[in-house]
Amino acid sequence: MGSKGFVRAVLVGAGVAVLALAAIYLVRQFTNPAPPPEAVNDFNPARFVAEGPPLDAPYVVTDYEVVDAMLAMAAVRPEDVVIDLGSGDGRILIAAARSHGARGLGVDIDPARITESNANARAAGVTSRVAFRRQDLFETPLAEANVLTLYLAPEINLRLRPRILAEMRPGTRVVSHDFDMGDWRPNERQMVGTASIYMWIVPANIEGRWTLSRGDRSVTLTLDQRFQDFSGTIAAGGRSTAIERGEITGDLVRFTANFGNGRRIFEGRLDGNRIVSTDPDRPWQAVRAS
Length: 290
What we know:
Elements: H1 3-31, H2 64-73, E1 81-85, H3 91-100, E2 103-108, H4 111-124, E3 130-134, E4 147-150, H5 154-167, E5 173-177, E6 188-192, E7 195-201, E8 208-214, E9 217-226, E10 229-236, E11 239-242, E12 244-249, E13 252-258, E14 263-271, E15 274-277, E16 285-288
Parallel strand pairs: 1-2, 1-4, 2-3, 4-5
Antiparallel strand pairs: 5-7, 6-7, 8-9, 8-16, 9-10, 10-11, 10-12, 12-13, 13-14, 14-15, 15-16
């Protein structure tokens, strides 16, 4: 074969090879098409999930041992009405109803906790004695309760304190898990494991001027009250003496004073605008000045 014939054969062979490769490429394109580009996923589940309500205090459960100790400290009885502010899963109120026979109301701002509490009450068989309500604890009426239970936060306790003292009846027991009431001294404190339990007994309001009478003698009694503690003076005939160790437990009043015949202890009970002696052997009374 001449040189020209050889070159022609090479070129023809190369062309056939190129055509074969092109044919293979086209076949692959049609039989295995490239996957379409991935769609951009802009789904955000947060847009479809409602945020929970803002909580006054974080939800932390109270251990059952602490629950039992709180109710025992408050001496909960069947005739008591218990209000639990920030009731969570309802365990305190359910235990008050089931173990002590009390009635009550649990309040929480979180609807999920109310649903859980109602389910727990049904399981415990106490739905006839307890109710759970979604409500702002600062708007919850307190006057009906004999016992108030709390597991909130120090600043929340302090915000509630004026309402407790103004609205709740003397003798109401207030029990708090872990947090105190600032300078309002607790009547009792107990440790359960690492938890602190505090109890206060709501004191009657006796601040002001009174006329204290014993037998045929009367004096002016002026009292300055700070929670369950009080001080004051007895004044008669231009003379004034200080009273000592003044303390109120619910509506029970106790102090030491010199009525003119030596220091003695006065014990009485508030009855409306009167304080009446609780010692039949030592009668006395005090009437609030108008």
